[in-house]
Write the C-alpha cells for this entry.
Amino acid sequence: MKIVITGGAGFLGARLARALLAQGHFSVNGAPAQPIEQLLLVDRAQPAPDLLADARVKPLVGDLNSLLVEGPQGAPAIPSGTDVVYHLAAAVSGECEADFDLGMRSNLAATEALLAACRKLGTQPVVVFASSLAVFGLVHDQPALPPPSVITDLTLPTPQTSYGIQKFIGEQLVADYSRKGFVRGRATRLMTVSVRPGKPNGAASSFFSGMIREPLAGVKGACPVAPETQVALASPGRTIEGLLRAGQATDAEWGPKTALNLPALVTTVGEMAQALEKVAGKPATDLIDWTPDETIRRIVKSWPGNVQSARANALGLLPDPDFESIVRAYVRENADAVRLQTL
Amino acid sequence: MKIVITGGAGFLGARLARALLAQGHFSVNGAPAQPIEQLLLVDRAQPAPDLLADARVKPLVGDLNSLLVEGPQGAPAIPSGTDVVYHLAAAVSGECEADFDLGMRSNLAATEALLAACRKLGTQPVVVFASSLAVFGLVHDQPALPPPSVITDLTLPTPQTSYGIQKFIGEQLVADYSRKGFVRGRATRLMTVSVRPGKPNGAASSFFSGMIREPLAGVKGACPVAPETQVALASPGRTIEGLLRAGQATDAEWGPKTALNLPALVTTVGEMAQALEKVAGKPATDLIDWTPDETIRRIVKSWPGNVQSARANALGLLPDPDFESIVRAYVRENADAVRLQTL
C-alpha cells in the first residue's frame, strides 16, 4: 500500500501522516487492509523529524504544481504504484483573495494536474480531496440568492472567495474523474479546524485558532469578529478521523460523487471565548483582542455557521461534543505551547 | 461597440450574429446603447456568406483553444477594445463523453483561457457564457442524492456528463472573475434548443431536433427515448432572445454571480410528436423511428424535464407558449428544408 499526501508537511498533513503510520494498514473500497509500505509526503517544506525517522516515510520537497505540471525533475509526485492520494496542499483563502493568480495556480491548476497524473496510473487510485466549508459563500444583499438557514450536503454552494471557487471546482473535477472510473474520489469538505497549534497562517479563518492558542501561550490573540459570529468547526482530531474514514469508505458507503460536509460543531466565537475561560480562567480571555477587522469580518460573514452533515453521520462520523473538550485536547497535546495555568 | 462571438459560425452563433447586426446597437450595464462597429466571429468554420457580406463582420477562423492558449498566430481571439464576448464555442455532450480530453481542452481549458484574455483587457468586458441545462444531472440510484422534482436557479447541479461538469466549472469561473471585477459575467443556462435546422450533431440531445426536422424533410428521424420522456426546451428564437437580454442586463438586474436558467417549455417527447402531427399530419409522425438507444436514453434521463426560471422571468424572459408554435416557426424559417405538406 503506497500513499501520497500533498501538503504532507503541513499541520493537517503531518497529523494525518502520523495517524496513518500508527494505523499501519489501509483498506481500499472494502478490500482487506494492507500494510502501508510507503508514505510519500509532498510539500514545499521538509516533514518533521519524527516523520522522517520512520522508514516508510519518503519526503518529496518542491512546489506541487511544478512537480506535476512542469514535468518531474527526478521523482514524480504521484509515482507508479500509488494506491491512495490525500490531496491537502493548497494556497489558503486570504492568500488567494490577495493574489488571484497564486490561487488559480496552486489550487486549480495543481488539482487538475494531480487528477490527470492519477488517471495516468490507470489503476483507479483513491483520491481524498480536501475541500472546504469555504465553498459555501452566503450572500446577504441578493434577494434572488437568499442565504440558507441551514447548509446540508445538497445545498448549492455559491462561493464568495476565489479559494472557495477553486475548491468547488476541484470537487467537480473529482466527481467527473470518479464517474469516469479514473479515480475513486472522496471529496470531503473540511470545517474550520480549531485549535491549530503553531503560528498564524494566511487563512482568513486563522483567528479561530489564534484567539485560543495565543492567550493560552500568554500573549495577545486577535478575534476580529463579533462574539455572536456563528462558526462550524471541528477539532484537528475529528478532522483527521474524517479524512481517514473518507479514504477507507467503500464506493457504496460513499454514495454520490459530490462532496460531503464533514461533521461540524456549530458554536459562536463568544462561546469559544467562554470555553477558553473555563479552561484557563480570566487571564486567558483578557488576552483576546476584539479589535474588528472589516476584511476578515466580510469573508467570515460569507461562511455559514449552521452546517449539517447527513452523509458523514451515516459513515459514523460525529462532531466534537463541545468546544471546551477541544480546548482541553489542545492543552493536552501542546503542553509546551501553554504558558497559562489551566483549571 | 466591439463584440466577439466564439462559435460564431455555428447555428446559434450565426443566429445571434444576425440578431445583433439587425439590432445594430448594444447597451452595456444600462449605458446608452452604442452602435455595433465590429462583430468578430471566432470559429473553426467560416461564417455564412450573408454574415461575411456585412462590413461589420470580421471572421477569425481557427481552433479557439489554439488561438487563446497557444498564443495568437496573427489576430487575437479577444482583441483590445472588445466590449462584449458571447462565449458559445464548445465541444458537445456526446463528443465529450466519448473523448474526455477533447472536452477538457475545448470546454474547460478554452474557457479558462478566454476569461484570462478578457481579464487582460483591463476593461471589464461583458462575458455571456452559454452554460447548459446539462449541468443538472439527475441521479436515480443514490438515496443521499434524491432527484429534485423541480429545478430552480438555486438547485444544486450534480452533472452526470463531462460536458455538464465542464459547463458547471465554467459557471464558477465566470462567477469569480465577475466578483473580482475582471469581467461582467452573465452565465446563462440554455435549455435544449429545438427545432435546430441543418444536420444532426454529436450532442446527445440532437434527436430533440432531428425527430421533427427529418420527418418534415420527408426522411426518417430517430427518437431513441420513450414518448413520456420529459424535456425542458426552448425555440432558437427564444434562446437568442435570452442571450441578447443577458448581455444587456445591468449588474443590478442580473443580480447574483451564479448562472440562471433560461426559460423552458416543459413538455414530453410524445407531445412533441403530437405537435408535429398537427403541423404536418400522420405522414410526418410515421417517419419517427422510435428504436430505443440505451446510451442516449441514459444521458437524457439524467437531464431534468421540470425546470423553473425565476431570475430569467424577472428579466422579462418567458418560455415558448407551446411546441406547435415552435414547429410552425421552424417551418416558416426553413421553408426550403420542408418537403411534407403542412396543415
DSSP finds 13 helices and 14 strands in chain B. The radius of gyration of chain B is 19 Å. The longest helix of chain B spans residues 100-121.
